[in-house]
Amino acid sequence: MNFESVLERSVDRAEYDFVAETEAAKPAISVIGLGYVGAVSMACLSHLGFRMVGVDVSREKVDAIRAGASPIVEERLGELLHEGASCGLIDATQNLVAAVLDTNVTFLSVGTPTSKDGGCDFTYVRQASRAIGQALSLKSAYHVVVLRCSVPPGTTLDVVVPEIERASGKKLGLDFGVCFNPEFLREGVAVADFFAPPKTVVGASDKRAEATVTAIYEAVDKNVIFTSIEAAEMVKYVDNVWHATKVAFANEVGRLCKKLSIDSHDVMNIFVKDLKLNLSPYYLKPGFAFGGSCLPKEVRAVSHIAHELGVEVPLVDSLMVTNKSHIKQAVDLLEPFAGKRIGFLGVTFKPGTDDLRESPTLEVMATLLAKGESISAYDPNLHFGPLLQSQIDYVRHAVPAQAKLMDELQSLTVASANDLFETCDVVVVSHATEQFRAVVNNRPTKVHVLDLARLFKELPDDATYQGIAW
Ligand SMILES: NC(=O)c1ccc[n+]([C@@H]2O[C@H](COP(=O)([O-])OP(=O)(O)OC[C@H]3O[C@@H](n4cnc5c(N)ncnc54)[C@H](O)[C@@H]3O)[C@@H](O)[C@H]2O)c1
Description:
- There is one protein chain.
- By secondary structure, the protein is α/β, with parallel strands linked by helices.
- It has helices at 3-8, 13-22, 36-47, 59-66, 77-86, 96-101, 123-136, 155-168, 190-195, 207-216, 229-259, 264-271, 295-309, 314-333, 360-370, 386-398, 403-412, 417-423, 434-441; strands spanning 29-32, 52-55, 90-93, 105-108, 143-147, 176-180, 201-204, 225-227, 341-345, 374-378, 426-429, 448-451, 465-467.
- It folds into 2 domains: 3-227, NAD(P)-binding Rossmann-like Domain (Rossmann fold, 3-Layer(aba) Sandwich); 324-467, NAD(P)-binding Rossmann-like Domain (Rossmann fold, 3-Layer(aba) Sandwich), CATH 3.40.50.
- It is built from 19 helices and 13 strands.
- The chain has an 8-stranded mixed sheet with strand order 3-2-1-4-5-6-7-8, sandwiched between helices. It has a 5-stranded parallel sheet with strand order 10-9-11-12-13, sandwiched between helices.
- Helix 3 (36-47) packs across helix 5 (77-86), helix 7 (123-136) crosses helix 8 and helix 13 runs antiparallel to helix 14 (314-333).
- The structure holds nicotinamide-adenine-dinucleotide (NAD).
C-alpha cells in the first residue's frame, strides 16, 4: 500500500477490509513507535515472515526504517532491518491511520516517560490510541491492538480502550480486541532476547485477540503465559523493580565487602550458586512477615556492621521497616473486628517448629492485647512445660512489649483448632499446613478468616475470607 497516496485521497473501506481478511493467516502488523522496542519488533517479526508497517512521528526514524537502516545502536538490528526492507516485508510511515488500516494487528510501543508527579505520562499512549480509534472507525474487520509499553496496571483497559472506543465508535471484544504483552528485552542484546525470550506473557480482552498474539510468537515461544491484562501489566513493573532490587542489593554487598577487604565477587559467586534458597522461587511468594531466630537478627547485624564502618546500606536498613509495615497490615485488617473475639491459628514463627523467637504473629497478638482486644490461640507445636517456658521467658525479656502476652499465653491457648473456630468471630491463620487448610475449609460459616500464609492456590469465593496480600 502506498501511504503517501492514502494521505491524498479518501479512504476506500473495501480495500482495507480485503487486506485484513486475506492476511488473517499470517497477520500484517503495524508498529507504532519506532524506538528501542518498536524497531526491534519490526526487524525480528519481519525475519519471521510477517509484513510489518512501522509508524513514528519522527521523519528520521521512518526514513531509516524504510531504507532498512537501524535508527538506534543495537546488535544485529541493522542487518535484520535491511533484510526485511530488501524483501518487501518492512515499510514505514508517519501516517498512523493508514498503517493501522493496512494491517490486522497493531503493536503500540510509544514512550511512557515519568510524569511530573513521578507517575506515568500517558500523553503518547493517549495520542496514539486516539489515532488507532480514528483508523478503526474506517474499518469493519476485527483488529487487535497490542500494548507493549510499560504502564501502570489498568492502563490498557482504562486509558487505551476508552480512547479507541471514543474515537472509533467501536466496541471492545466485538470490533476489536486488546492485549497487553510486556516487552522484556534488554538493550544491547535485544535481538537475541527476542528470539530467546525469558518468557512471553499475554493478557487479552478475548480469546480471538489472545490466539492472534499467541500465533505471532509461536516460532520463538510455544509456552506463552496467559493471564489477566492487569496482571500482565503488573508483571513488567514487578520484574523491573526486582531487577533494580538485585542490582542495589549486590552493590550494597559490594560496598560493605570493600570496606571489609573481602572480594565481593568471591562472596556473590558463592551466593549465586545456591539455587535452592537464594536464586529460586523460595521466599518470593507474598505471605506473612519474616521472623524467627535468624533473619531479623542477621539483618540488624549487617546494618550495624555497615553503620560502624560508615557504609551506607539503605536497602538492608529498610528491611526491618518493610517487615514492620507488613505486621501493621495484619493489625489494620483486623481493625473491623475490634471488640470481637480474635483467634490465632499458628503462633510460632513458622510451621513445624516450637520456636517463638521474633514470631511476627506474637507481635500482632501483643498489639491487640495492648488495645484490650479479646484474643485466643492454637498451635499444635506449643507444648507448655519447662522447655517452652524457657522460650517464653526469653521472649518476655527480649521484647518488653510482649511481656504481658507471654504471661498470658498459656491461658489464651485453646486445646484444638476446632475449639478456636467455635469460640471466635475471626481467625488469623499464620501457617499453611494441611491441618489448618482442612479446618478452615470446614469452619462454621459465620467465622471470618484472615489468611497470612496463602492456604489456597485458588482463592475462595467467600466474603468471610481474606488474605493479607492477595
Ligand atoms: N527500551 C527498553 O529497553 C524497553 C524494554 C521494555 C519495555 N520498554 C517500554 O516500551 C515503551 C517504548 O520504549 P522505547 O525505549 O522503545 O521508547 P523510545 O522513546 O525509544 O521510542 C518511542 C517512540 O515512540 C514515538 N512516538 C511517540 N508518540 C508517537 C505517536 N503518537 N505516534 C507514533 N510514534 C510516536 C517516538 O517518536 C519514539 O520514536 C516504553 O513504555 C518503555 O517503558 C522499553
